[in-house]
Amino acid sequence: MKKSFFILASAAILALTMASAPLAQKGKVELGYVEWADATATTNVAKAVLQEKMGYEVEITPVGAAAMWMAVGEGDIDGMTGAWLPVTHGHYFKQVQEDVVDLGPNMEGAKIGLVVPTYVTIASIAEMKGRVEKFDGKIIGIDPGAGIMSKTEQAMEKYGLDDFKLMEGTGAMMTAVLKERIESDEWVVVTGWTPHWKFVRWELKYLADPEGVYGEAEDVHTIVRKGLKEDMPEVYRFLDRFHWEPADVEQVMGWNTEEGVDPYDTAKRWIEENPEKVEEWLK
């Protein structure tokens, strides 16, 4: 009798200890992402759920777009949440589609194209021709491996923008130039995408693309390596259910623009303020 009581008491103490202690580490998950504002937000929210709510150790690695796709295809990382399909990353997907698993969209309604301030008095990419001096001869781009950069090169050829130069850089550099030009009330054109916090910060518009180079609205997909379902079924199930809206992404991106902010801290803040959505992902 005493022995049974001791066993029951020990089990109760253990259960209480486990409930009050941090979640035990279940294993390591590796995710890749490109340091674009939306991908940074999405990847950190996925990391926060996996670590804070599910008890996994998560490593996120910033890489170029091509390297990100290759790493998932070769099984070097477990997955990514920033695959723009069917257009922006379509050529990368074709190269590795036999070696990855597409879990479908984690966000619908994304878009890419050329973006200008609303005070710029043209409405179409075709109207850029002959206005090279107004734009200082430059289209302000991001990192050269980004799908939007290859699409912009195609657009420049399609619309005869031979006098323009596509400037390589980063997302942060692109928004810095945009900010500077807007403050000076100058014309500027940048490679842009939705969702992005710049549309909340400034009055901007997409230039019409009558030739359809940039495609229609896109979705952002979650892509994982083959074998993840068998190796980590709980992780696979969460990533398969992970889905949010453009407004959610833009909210986190907006927080991330505040000086000195850690994107992981804003991700933790978002999941704590949106428990219903997180619960839905974890069912």
Can you walk through the features of this model?
The protein has 283 residues and is α/β, with parallel strands linked by helices. It has 2 domains: 24-109 and 219-282, Periplasmic binding protein-like II (D-Maltodextrin-Binding Protein, domain 2); 111-206, Glycine betaine-binding periplasmic protein, domain 2 (D-Maltodextrin-Binding Protein, domain 2, 3-Layer(aba) Sandwich). 44% of the residues lie in helices and 21% in strands. It has 12 helices and 9 strands. The strands form 2 sheets. Strands 1, 2, 3, 4, 7, 8 and 9 form a 7-stranded mixed β-sheet that branches. The protein has a two-stranded parallel ribbon with strand order 5-6. Helix 5 links the parallel strand 5 (138-140) and strand 6 (165-167). Helix 2 crosses helix 10 (246-256) and helix 2 (37-53) packs across helix 11. The longest helix has 19 residues, at 2-20. It is globular. The two termini are 40 Å apart. 41% of the residues are buried.
Which SSEs are present, and which pair or pack?
Blueprint: H1 2-20, E1 28-33, H2 37-53, E2 57-62, H3 65-73, E3 79-85, H4 90-96, E4 100-117, E5 138-140, H5 147-158, E6 165-167, H6 171-183, E7 190-194, H7 198-201, E8 204-206, E9 218-225, H8 228-231, H9 233-241, H10 246-256, H11 263-273, H12 275-282
Parallel strand pairs: 1-2, 1-3, 5-6
Antiparallel strand pairs: 3-9, 4-7, 4-8, 4-9
Helix pairs in contact: 2-10, 2-11
